[in-house]
Amino acid sequence: MATDYDAPRNTNDESSDDSIEELKGRRDDKAGSTIDVDTEAVEGIELPGADLSGEELTVRVVPIQQDEFTCMTCFLVHHRTQLAGEDKNGQPICVDCAS
């Protein structure tokens, strides 16, 4: 069956006849409802600025591989497939920085 997308939509919804005051009242009713907060779920979350001076972080650093290069514009390590070329000083540049 063909559908005429240019024809006005008829949703048979009576809410389209509501006055602006009724719509504002509904919005205020929804905004005034209380929000159920699960305090147990957020107890373990640290806020920004928390004192982490006593914490140790261990990260395994992998040296640059044979098929990787460091972009001299963004200083990120990329795979050779991301190499766009070299800048005027002969330094490698990634595809993102070249565009």
Task: Please tell me about this protein's structure.
- The strands form two sheets. A two-stranded antiparallel ribbon has the order 1-2. Strands 3-4 form a two-stranded antiparallel ribbon.
- The chain is flat, with a radius of gyration of 29 Å.
- 20% of the residues lie in helices and 13% in strands.
- The protein has a domain at 68-98.
- The chain has three helices and four strands.
- It starts with 19 loop residues before the first helix and ends with a helix.
- The mean pLDDT is 80.
- A hairpin with a 5-residue loop joins strand 3 (83-86) and strand 4 (92-94).
- With 99 residues, the protein is an alpha+beta fold.
Helix and strand sequence: HHEEEEH
Main sheet properties: 2 strands, antiparallel
- What would you call the shape? flat
Tally of extended strands? 4
Question: Could you estimate the helical fraction of the residues in percent?
Answer: 10-25%
Give the strand content: 5-15%
What is the radius of gyration computed over CA atoms, rounded to a whole number of angstroms?
29 Å
* End-to-end CA span: 47 Å
SS element count, helices: 3
Mean pLDDT: 80
User: SS-based structural class?
Assistant: alpha+beta
Strand order of the largest sheet: 1-2
Report low-confidence residues grouped into runs of 5 or more: none
